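Backbone-to-sequence.
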């Protein structure tokens, strides 16, 4: 029969979370090499909070695709900037920010959702040429 005090200590030790056990330094080298720290796995959350969206935007900024930057028609009249945060800003003539919205790049295709509600698409022919709305844009360095 197990002494009640030993049983209580066993219950307390069993209740210690895996995260707590991993946070504590090992007492010796053998314990450190044999320790297995299994942290809980997060379950997917289908609803994004404002913080989640900000973190996603920050992650996109650090992992920007190669098409980010300024794209300009040959006559310079239309300037189309693809921003690192998944947004675009298009100037037309002297009108700055004539169109703004979000975009997504899939392969060599680009899809736009303007803030006013219309949608458009385009195709990157190569790293320096974008066909969009019947126009040809070149990357500006």
């Amino acid at each position: 029969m197990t002494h009640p005090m030993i049983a209580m200590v066993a219950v307390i030790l069993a209740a210690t979370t895996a995260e707590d056990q991993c946070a504590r330094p090992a007492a010796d080298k053998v314990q450190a090499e044999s320790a297995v720290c299994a942290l809980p796995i997060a379950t997917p959350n289908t609803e994004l909070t404002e913080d989640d969206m900000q973190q996603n935007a920050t992650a996109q900024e650090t992992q920007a695709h190669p098409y980010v930057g300024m794209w300009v028609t040959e006559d310079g009249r239309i300037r189309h900037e693809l921003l690192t945060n998944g947004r675009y800003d298009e100037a037309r003539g002297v009108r700055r920010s004539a169109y703004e919205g979000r975009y997504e790049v899939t392969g060599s295709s680009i899809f736009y959702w303007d803030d006013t509600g219309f949608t458009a698409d385009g195709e990157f022919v190569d790293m320096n040429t974008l066909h969009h709305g019947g126009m040809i844009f070149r990357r500006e360095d």
